């Protein structure tokens, strides 16, 4: 690594959205893979109905940070997060805090059920497309059926709306009952977006969703995301700076497990404040 | 390299070439021997088996000794074998797929999983006659008290289960963690992700495991001799002794009765065709499954 920054001189620049605009508010987050520490006191405000981009050199902790937001890391017993992640004011990291206000009356720490509900409210799209081995229709219905029972007519509507919003309807409408695995990579990724928004989450997390896509598919995905931000809050990890500049409202630059700069994207790319981000943006740092 | 030391390399080059020829020659001879053995087995099976086939071979039960040439058939053994294999496969598929799933998805690297894996590997290579003796002790001597089709089916299940457990675990491990996470990220529990997504994505592999398990048991004789015993008559009673093709071969092949020996060859041919097709279909499915990935 070319860069070394000590803890004291950690230069965080923070131009954050107002507290009442924040859906998610990460505060002082530390993350451990077993004994290895991957995040050091990260703060991240996520504004409602905005696109927040996480950028930084590979290995800096972007995926790690994203994966704490829906607590998907919980699948792996050795992984551990400390600090606060406030989701509409409630700390996600306290397993005794029920995520759903409706469940708060039960008083039982039903982590399993609450996590399922949390993940229905914070969706995730992965780096490689992950269509389920079932029809396009069932891919989308899968998550919806987990939440509630839905009649055929309503499900048809949900499927059409989700595919339309993910900019896939025209390409998929004639083969809804064919396997999702038969789609191209770009279409599969948009299917995953459609699947994620079909359950109407508040937040959609995307981890380098375009890294395996060609430029045309990438453009379609970006268009879809820009449309989606009216209804959803989006956090996207990307190694493509042009992409971050094109679609995001806020940009968080990370380095070695720390948040270095957080600013509106319109300023961040024009005039990075820290030397580290300047070097990264001008391509001097891989 | 040849450019660097042209003088010194000439004899060395020759020697290396020679070693290479000898090595290629030896491997070719070994391959040819293996192939020749296989061709001879298939040839004698087809020659002697096909020659003995007539309609009676599948419509009549086994004949008594001294019957006229061409009399009698294998119906009781064929039906018995199908029933025994069906019992064995039904048990083995349930236990094998569930335990393979536990190993891949839950046990993972735990010590208990390591132990289970080790025991499974031991069972995988356990001599089938031992399995027969074990089931004989357990079911024939004690629980049931006499020879029965059930005991035969259980013995076959014990043989097929480790094959299916092993392939199931291997196949499930091929699925990406991202696929599992994608299911959980929608709010599905781990069990549902496995049943609705991971199993489905592994369908061809699971079928392959089943076919390999079937191929393993369909020709087994030793465990059946101690358990389902054999039965000269057609029987579908699971609590009673039941005929099977392998036990018929065992009884007929070395007899002095020409007609019996003819039927033994026919039975051998039938088993070979079953095993071969199970293997071929299994492999074809496995190949198709992996090219889809
Ligand atoms: N499963 C894991 N086990 C141990 N260390 C990990 C694991 N995943 C990531 N890391 C480490 O955590 C750090 C951050 O990784 P990651 O969040 O994947 O970075 P990014 O997404 O920015 O490329 C890296 O140093 C990486 O080696
Ligand atoms: Mg990453």
What would a concise description of this structure say?
The complex is a heterodimer of chains A (286) and B (293). With 286 residues, chain A is an alpha/beta fold. Chain A is built from ten helices and eleven strands.
| CATH class categorisation of the largest domain in chain B | Mainly Alpha
Helix content of chain A: 25-40%
Order of helices and strands of chain A: EEEEHEEHEHHHHEHEHEEHH
Largest sheet of chain A: 7 strands, mixed
CATH superfamily of chain A: P-loop containing nucleotide triphosphate hydrolases
Number of domains of chain B: 2
Query: Kindly, what is the distance between the CA atoms of the first and last residues of chain A, rounded to a whole number of angstroms?
Result: 9 Å
> What is the count of DSSP helices of chain B, taking H or I runs of 4+ residues?
12
CA distance, first residue to last residue of chain B: 41 Å
Can you tell me the overall shape of chain B? globular
Order of strands across the biggest sheet of chain A? 1-11-10-4-9-8-7
Tell me the CATH topology of the largest domain in chain B: MetI-like fold
Explain what the structure shows.
The complex is a heterodimer of chains A (286) and B (293). Chain A is built from 10 helices and 11 strands. Chain A has helices at 62-69, 111-121, 136-147, 152-165, 169-172, 185-198, 215-228, 241-247, 265-268, 275-281, and strands at residues 13-14, 22-33, 36-47, 51-55, 79-87, 90-91, 122-125, 203-207, 233-237, 250-255, 258-264. Chain A is globular. In chain A, 47% of the residues are buried. Chain B is an all-alpha fold and 293 residues long. Chain B folds into 2 domains: 7-50; 66-291, Orthogonal Bundle (MetI-like fold), CATH 1.10.3720.10. In chain B, helix 4 (111-124) crosses helix 6 and helix 11 packs antiparallel against helix 12 (258-291). Chain B starts with 5 loop residues before the first helix and ends with a helix. Classes of the chains: A alpha/beta (286), B mainly alpha (293). The A-B interface holds A 70, 72, 75, 112, 115-120, 123-124, 126-128, 130, 132-134, 142-143, 146-147, 181, 192, 195-196, 199 and B 176, 178-190, 192, 196-197, 200-201, 203, 292. The structure holds adenosine-5'-diphosphate and magnesium ion. Magnesium ion binds next to helix 1 of chain A.
């Amino acid at each position: 690594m070319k860069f070394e920054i000590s803890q004291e001189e950690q230069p965080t620049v923070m131009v954050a959205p107002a507290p009442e605009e924040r859906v998610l508010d990460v505060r002082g987050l530390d993350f451990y893979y077993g004994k290895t520490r991957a995040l050091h006191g990260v703060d991240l405000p996520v504004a409602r109905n905005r696109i927040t981009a996480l950028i930084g050199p590979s290995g800096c902790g972007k995926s790690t940070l994203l994966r704490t937001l829906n607590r998907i890391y919980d699948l792996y017993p050795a992984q551990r997060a400390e600090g606060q992640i406030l989701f509409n004011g409630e700390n996600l990291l306290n397993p005794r805090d029920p995520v759903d206000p409706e469940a708060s009356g039960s008083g039982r720490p039903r982590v399993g059920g609450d996590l399922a509900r949390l993940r229905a409210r914070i969706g995730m799209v992965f780096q490689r497309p992950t269509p389920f081995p079932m029809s396009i229709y069932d891919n989308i219905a899968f998550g919806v059926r987990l939440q509630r029972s839905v009649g055929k007519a309503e499900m048809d509507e949900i499927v059409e709306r989700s595919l339309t919003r993910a900019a896939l309807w025209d390409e998929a409408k004639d083969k809804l009952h064919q396997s999702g695995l038969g789609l191209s990579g770009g279409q599969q990724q948009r299917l995953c977006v459609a699947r994620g928004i079909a359950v109407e989450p508040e937040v959609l997390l995307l981890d380098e969703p375009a890294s395996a896509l060609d430029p045309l598919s990438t453009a379609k995905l970006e268009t879809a995301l820009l449309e989606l931000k009216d209804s959803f809050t989006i956090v996207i990890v990307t190694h493509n700076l042009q992409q971050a500049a094109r679609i995001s409202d806020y940009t968080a630059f990370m380095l070695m497990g720390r948040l270095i700069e957080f600013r509106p994207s319109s300023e961040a790319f024009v005039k990075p404040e820290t030397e580290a981000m300047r070097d990264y943006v001008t391509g001097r740092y891989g | 390299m040849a450019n660097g030391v042209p003088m010194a390399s000439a004899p060395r080059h020759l020697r290396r070439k020679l070693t290479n020829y000898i090595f290629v020659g030896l491997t070719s001879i070994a391959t040819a021997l293996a192939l020749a053995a296989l061709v001879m087995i298939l040839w004698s099976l087809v020659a002697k088996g096909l020659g003995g086939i007539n309609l009676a071979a599948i419509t009549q039960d086994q004949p008594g000794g001294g019957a006229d040439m061409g009399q009698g058939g294998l119906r009781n053994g064929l039906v018995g074998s199908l029933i025994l294999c069906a019992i064995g496969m039904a048990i083995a598929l349930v236990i094998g797929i569930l335990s393979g799933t536990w190993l891949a998805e839950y046990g993972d690297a735990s010590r208990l999983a390591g132990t289970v894996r080790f025991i499974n590997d031991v069972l995988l290579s356990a001599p089938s006659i031992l399995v027969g003796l074990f089931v004989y002790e357990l079911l024939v001597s004690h629980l049931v008290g006499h020879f029965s089709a059930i005991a035969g089916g259980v013995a076959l299940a014990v043989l097929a289960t480790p094959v299916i457990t092993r392939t199931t675990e291997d196949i499930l491990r091929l699925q990406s963690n991202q696929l599992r996470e994608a299911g959980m990220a929608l709010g599905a529990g781990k069990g549902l992700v496995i049943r609705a997504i991971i199993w489905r994505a592994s369908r061809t592999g699971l079928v392959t495991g089943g076919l390999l398990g079937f191929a393993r048991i369909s020709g087994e004789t030793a465990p059946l001799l101690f358990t389902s015993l054999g039965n000269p008559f057609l029987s579908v009673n699971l609590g009673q002794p039941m005929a099977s093709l392998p036990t018929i071969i065992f009884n007929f092949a070395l007899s002095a009765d020409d007609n019996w020996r003819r039927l033994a060859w026919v039975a051998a041919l039938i088993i070979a065709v079953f095993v071969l097709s199970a293997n071929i279909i299994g492999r074809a499915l496995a190949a198709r499954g992996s090219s889809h990935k």
